[in-house]
Amino acid sequence: MNDEHFMKQALEEARKAFEDGEVPIGAVVVQQNRIIGRGHNNVERLNDCTAHAEMIALTSAFNTLGSKYLMDATLYVTVEPCLMCAGALYWSKIGKIVYAAPDEKNSYRRATGERSPFHPKTQLIQGPYKEESLQLMKAFFEQRR
Hints:
This protein is an alpha/beta fold and 145 residues long.
């Protein structure tokens, strides 16, 4: 199993969010080639501005492991994390973050510039399915207009 396989799982989560009328972002947390947490945006359904895909996937992973740290785990997320999610990822000490599409408007970089808000040992890479993630976001916002 590789980045493509797990990002495809995150895309499935994003599609669930799209179908629910949520901003279509999905995430999975993986450790030892096993998904230990899943999430997609639930901001509208839960009436909770913190119910981002990453936050839900992290909580699921913490509960699965019974731990607050994810040093040996990887987060796959369809869109680059926002500043709030970056803070949670920092405290989780996650080992690696793989995102599909950049988000110039709402990512953590808007507040931090190019300075990384993640734990110093966290790897951050842009992974596969950039175009698919961007198209899903575009379709969602076109539908809203």
